[in-house]
Amino acid sequence: MFDTVFSLASTAAIIGWVALILLPRWPMLIAGLRFGLIGALSLTYAVLIFVYFFRIEGGGFGSIAEVRALFLSDGGLVAGWVHYLAFDLFIGTWIAVEADRRGYNRLLQVPMLIGTFMFGPIGLLLFYITRVTEMVLSRKRA
Known about the structure:
By secondary structure, this protein is mainly alpha-helical. 84% of the residues lie in helices and 0% in strands.
């Protein structure tokens, strides 16, 4: 069962990322990602946590040993993976919408979005660096 959930969630997230990067950002696409795919991933995470979290012997967040115990369990590991998928896609969608609003070229957005897909906070950092650079350059022009 865990292999199936892992595979379905991963495939769905990849499809979402490809759509976010390559397709026009119509409001229905963004809404579908936010309330459809990210919502489904979040619901999957919630079910996994509520069903398996309290069953994991020695699991918790109070020490590295407790967190390790969570990830040694298939239920905890898949829940953690789905958590990453949902949050990274949420942040990627936010970055894409903000970057579009600011008029950033789609090619400039690609490293930010792929960075977020692959390495989470690194993509967000790229977006923040771009924003800071934009602010500095706009002050110099003024």
